[in-house]
């Protein structure tokens, strides 16, 4: 009985240590070396120990952004600054459209400007369209977009 209790206690301790600590067992390159910059656990969850960043060409201003509307960033994240004129929205086209089977999600937040006119947006695989009720000039907003495969 003593051996059974000791063995059970050891298994319980091991099980709790695995449940409490996140053990990375491979890096993004799928190597067996868990010391990579980005880690993956046994169930393919990805762990980012620092900031999440992205490099790439900026999306393009497709329509309605006034004179001089601009985008700085990438398809992943960036800042849109509407141009001058009677601007009530802006259409942004991703540099590389998401796949047709992906669900695209974007979070868009006003940086400064006309807070009395809340923004709304719609998203497609090709880009996003931001609108606001009151006309504004040079209104900047930040975006973050990603896609999920079904």
Short synopsis of the structure:
With 150 residues, the protein is mainly beta. Helices cover 13% and strands 39% of the residues.
Terminal-residue CA separation: 51 Å
Total count of strands:
11
**Beta-strand content bin:** 35-45%
- Cα-atom Rg, whole angstroms? 23 Å
Biggest beta sheet attributes: 4 strands, antiparallel
What does this structure look like?
Helices cover 13% and strands 39% of the residues. The strands form three sheets. It has a four-stranded antiparallel β-sheet, with no helix packed on it. Strands 5-6-11-8 form a four-stranded antiparallel β-sheet, with no helix packed on it. The chain is built from one helix and eleven strands. It has one helix at 2-20, and strands spanning 26-27, 39-40, 46-47, 60-63, 70-73, 77-81, 87-93, 103-110, 119-123, 127-136, 140-148. A hairpin with a 3-residue loop joins strand 5 and strand 6 (77-81). The chain is mainly beta. The chain folds into two domains: 2-47, no CATH class; 60-148.
Features:
150 residues, mainly beta, four-stranded antiparallel beta sheet, 13% helix
In terms of topology, how is this protein built?
Layout lengths: L1 H19 L5 E2 L11 E2 L5 E2 L12 E4 L6 E4 L3 E5 L5 E7 L9 E8 L8 E5 L3 E10 L3 E9 L2
Antiparallel strand pairs: 1-2, 2-3, 4-7, 5-6, 6-11, 7-10, 8-11, 9-10
């Amino acid at each position: 009985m003593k051996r059974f209790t000791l063995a059970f206690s050891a298994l319980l301790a091991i099980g709790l240590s695995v449940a409490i600590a996140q053990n990375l067992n491979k890096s993004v390159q799928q190597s067996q070396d868990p010391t990579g910059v980005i880690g993956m656990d046994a169930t393919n969850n990805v762990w980012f120990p620092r900031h999440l960043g992205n490099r790439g060409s900026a999306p393009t201003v497709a329509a309605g952004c006034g004179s001089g509307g601009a985008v700085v960033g990438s398809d992943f994240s960036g800042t849109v600054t509407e141009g001058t004129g009677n601007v009530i929205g802006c259409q942004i086209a991703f540099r590389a459209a998401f796949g047709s089977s992906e669900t695209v999600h974007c979070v868009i937040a006003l940086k400064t400007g006309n807070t009395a006119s809340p923004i709304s947006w719609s998203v497609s695989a090709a880009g996003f369209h931001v609108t606001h009720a009151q006309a504004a000039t040079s209104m900047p907003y930040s975006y973050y977009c990603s896609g999920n495969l079904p």
